[in-house]
């Protein structure tokens, strides 16, 4: 009887051990199948085309090529960026109409087709034209008329870029106010006009994904003496550096979303 009792206990213990081992094996197998191992980010090869006006050309900091040059340097230092190439077609004085003409040039078309990233600054000269044409008798309706023309040109420009390249991510800069120290009391009337202009441009851009509207007005607000070039219109090196750092954050954010 005693021998039979010992055998029974041994059998029970062995059965329990087998069940425990089986349970552990299944748990390890399940965890192995369902636990995702963090993937190493794919190295980025950024092929950048920069379009637009004097800000993209870098007027005010030509030595460093403005925000385009500074952004390129920052990106080359980023861990997950393997290479950066840049073709800069920015030109001083260009309006939205000039941008449309540039998008008809073969060199620009081919560059956009071969890119995966587009930088864009446009609209500042359209806005300045209102001041030049109506300076002595300036009304809000003057800006409204110009904005309608600009909006139509912006839609055409973004449509053309998307036709040439449906996938390149566009980073489109909003406008800042370089006139706050010159307008005096009138500045409080101009700020809502600028804000409406930027909001409208941002709203238009949403239809041309993938695209990021990059605000700049807050960067320069109350700091134009510190951040503008001697012409008190274009950014200086410090101003462009702020723009570049913000742009890099937008680029990093867009790439992080792609990896998810």
TrEMBL record:
* Protein origin, superkingdom: Bacteria
Keywords linked to the UniProt accession: Hydrolase, Membrane, Transmembrane, Transmembrane helix
Tell me if Acetylation is a UniProt keyword of this record.
Answer: no
Which Pfam families does its entry note? Answer: Lipase_GDSL_2 (PF13472)
Which InterPro entries did the record assign? Answer: Ester_Hydrolysis_Enzymes, SGNH_hydro, SGNH_hydro_sf
Q: Which molecular function term from Gene Ontology is one that the record holds?
A: hydrolase activity
Q: TM segments? A: 12-32
Q: Does the keyword Transport apply?
A: no
Signal sequence coordinates: none
Looking up CDD domains in the UniProt record yields: SGNH_hydrolase_YpmR_like (cd04506)
Q: Where is the SGNH hydrolase-type esterase domain?
A: 50-241
The name under which this protein is listed is SGNH/GDSL hydrolase family protein
């Amino acid at each position: 009887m005693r021998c039979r009792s010992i055998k029974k206990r041994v059998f029970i213990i062995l059965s329990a051990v087998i069940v425990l081992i089986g349970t552990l094996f299944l748990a390890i197998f399940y965890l192995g199948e369902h636990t995702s191992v963090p993937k190493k980010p794919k190295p980025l090869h950024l092929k950048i085309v920069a379009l637009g006006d004097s800000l993209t050309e870098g007027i005010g900091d030509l030595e460093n090529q403005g925000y385009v040059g500074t952004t390129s340097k920052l990106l080359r230092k980023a861990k997950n960026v393997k290479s950066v190439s840049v073709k800069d077609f920015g030109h001083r004085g260009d309006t939205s109409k000039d941008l449309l003409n540039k998008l008809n040039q073969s060199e620009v078309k081919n560059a956009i087709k071969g890119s995966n990233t587009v930088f864009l600054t446009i609209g500042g000269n359209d806005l300045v034209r209102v001041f030049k044409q109506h300076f002595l008798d300036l009304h809000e309706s003057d800006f409204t008329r110009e904005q309608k023309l600009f909006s139509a040109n912006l839609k055409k420009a973004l449509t053309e870029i998307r036709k040439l390249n449906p996938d390149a991510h566009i980073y489109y800069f909003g406008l800042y106010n370089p006139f706050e120290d010159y307008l005096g009391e009138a500045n409080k009337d101009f700020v809502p006009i600028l804000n409406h202009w930027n909001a409208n441009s941002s709203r238009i851009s949403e239809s041309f994904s993938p695209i990021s509207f990059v605000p700049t007005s807050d960067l320069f607000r109350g700091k134009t003496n510190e951040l503008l070039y001697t012409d008190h219109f274009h950014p200086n090196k410090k101003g462009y550096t702020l723009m570049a750092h913000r742009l890099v954050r937008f680029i990093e954010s867009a790439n992080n979303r792609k990896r998810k």
